[in-house]
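Q: Hi! First time asking for a complex rather than a single chain. Here are the components, and I think there are two in total. Is that enough to go on?
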Amino acid sequence: MELDRILPRVKKPARYVGGEYNSVLKDRAKVDLRFALAFPDIYEVGMSHLGSRILYGLYNSLDGVSCERVYAPWPDMEAEMREHGISLYGLESRDPVYSFDIVGFSLQYELSYTNVLNMLDLAGIPVRRDDRGDALSPLIIAGGPCAYNPEPLADFIDVFVIGEGEEVSLELFELYRKAKRGGLGKKEFLNLAAQIEGLYVPSLYNISYNEDGTVNSIDPAENAPGVVLKRIVADFDKAYYPEKFVVPSTDIVFDRAMVELFRGCIRGCRFCQAGHAYRPVRTKKPETLSKQAKALIESSGFEELSLSSLSTSDYKELEPLCDDLLSFCEPKKVSLSLPSLRADNFGIELMQRAQKVRKSGLTFAPEAGTQRLRDVVNKNLTENDLYDACSVAFSGGWNNVKLYFMTGLPTETDEDLDGIAEIAKNVVYRWRQNTKNKNRGVTVTVSASYFVPKPHTPFQWFGQVPLAEIERRQQYLRDKLRIKNVTFHWHEAKNGYLEAIFARGDRRLGSVLERAWRQGCKFDGWDEFFRFDKWMEAFRFCGLESDFYALRTRGAEEVFPWDHISCGVTKAHLWKEYERAFEGETSLNCRQACAGCGAAKLLKGGACDA
Amino acid sequence: MLNARMRFSKTGNARYLSHLDTMHLFQRTFLRAGLPLRYTEGFNPHPYVSVLLPLPTSFAGLDEIVDFDLTEDIPAELVLDKINAALPLGFCATELCEALDKSREIAYASYRIELFLDETAEKIIEILKKNTIMILKKSKSGENEVNLKDYLAKASAYSENGKIYIDAVISAGNKNLNPEYLVNALSSELGLKKVPDALYTRTAILKENLKTFR
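A: Yes, that's all I need. Here is the structure of the assembled complex.
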């Protein structure tokens, strides 16, 4: 009732009510484990996340388990909730989050960390795990790509799930149920949880530091593993996949059906965390994908189907798969979208067929402006690959191309920035040469993000280029890119600086995070809420140096705060790739030659499907 | 039935969907129901679906109207069953028939307003009896001072359990007035500092003669 009085006053109230088609509300009497799947951003972003859709479907398919969604309320709603004493609630039942057994946060980007704290607080749950006592519930867990360096959140989370959640969370649920039946406290439960492969219990690890602020050693308690190895779904083709997606009642960012072609990536771009952390490559059969896609379209009514993966054109059977899907989609006016295409191996015929229903723009990611720098990052894409792809696209009627670049990559100079402008100019030129209708004009959109070195990548040792220098390079690019038909987008550099701090941060950052949040920081990924001054004040308050985390180039011997977390790829492999980068040496992709990165051992005898 | 007019209710959680959300929801519902729909032509084909009189976000609607075109003649009962099976909670399709009236014939709508206000109904009725209640009405060309009474065909009020219930028939369609203006006006006539919370339900869409739009 209270909620019904508040909702008319807030923006987009449909975010906060649930009840969407295909959402699941279970009978509480038949449930002994209630899971709150929390995404620390607004509904429109959280609902677009494929991983959450998989886990939501999987958990609700289990007897006795119910899973509800929780998103961060926009500040107008938060203010109303706080004023009227409404605790954060699960969208399905509207029961308060603190009454759930397990609250699981999805960590997709570092700038959502303040929202994790804010959501706990809105749920009436003490943010620090030390303040939560020994009651088993609610158990606060977190997973997702940012869990590969869990340390900045170690003070707030009881258990981190490292790697893919489909199998390990079921083991966690079983243990939880046993603990609940046996009346175990949280401490006893956590000791047992640490025995499950892929679960990291931060309270069981002691971190000591050197005088220079680097990590000296990471010491596990007696019963905890020295290294927590990530979990994967070994047989990806047979892995659980939902037949139904919750159909959002209001527009979301990626409002479409999605199937997942494969996990992992054969490419090994040296900046890319997903490309390393999600290895080994595991593929779904076209028949499986086709069945899953059709079920989703029929049960949802989505007008778009997206083939998701880290590099869609690397899927070996893409053409036959698309043929099959199109024969189903076209009569239903469902369009097929193929994101993450590489300019060197995408087929324009395929694109043309795929886009018969609706034509969207084309996006390529050359990442860097010169061949030299693309070799440093191991992108393995030539300018001619790009121009050829664009020429074919332009002659096929496209007149809208997006190009993604990064600035601040290792060894970047102004010459590389000149190269970005050169590429943009040449792409416009290709349009003039190849288009069949010059009157329609062309738009080439160039985006340049601020490179953030990420853990578990070959660039994890690299010191980020300082803010002031990046701002100079952005200005330089703006001047160079004043070209007809070219639009330039750049990101607020300060965001990228904070992201770099937390990406490779240690446990001591917990106090900075809490301070910044208490001073009002939240939704840091949103420009209208990002308060850089408050963050810098929080660093001063906690006596920590932000540049130490973002800008410092690490030595070969340094112990990283995430050295006890393994994604399967060895530090030795990453170091070899780091050295090759500075020699300007490219590496072959995994399909050409196995580099022995170490991830295949996760398959326990099976072969990497590169 | 090729040019279909469907009546539906939108209550509970569904009241929080905006007009555009509702249009999109019907497009997807019809796809899920497997109905053969006429599509718009062009770069971005979508099923031709028209929700007639936009219902403001957070308003419930008991007798709303959506028009769409089928490319095959299917019995109304069957269409209705399929649609209801494919609609989310809060929506209910109640009737399917040929469109009789033209949308420009919409002239009024009736509303039930639940006002969280501890006040006697007499006081409200007194205000509603006035000949002129001037309000500032926003339009595309700016704010204009108009007489609320010119938009009000009927209004009555009663109180119950510390709340005021108002039933009002207000201009809609071309000469549209959001019933929130009525509540705002009452609030300022009563000298309240803050506009009281209100829940709005549109109960019917009417023609000039105050008969139900069909």
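A: The beta strands of chain B are 3-10, 49-51, 60-69, 91-98, 106-115, 134-139, 142-147, 152-160, 163-171, 198-207. Let me know if you'd like any chain examined more closely.
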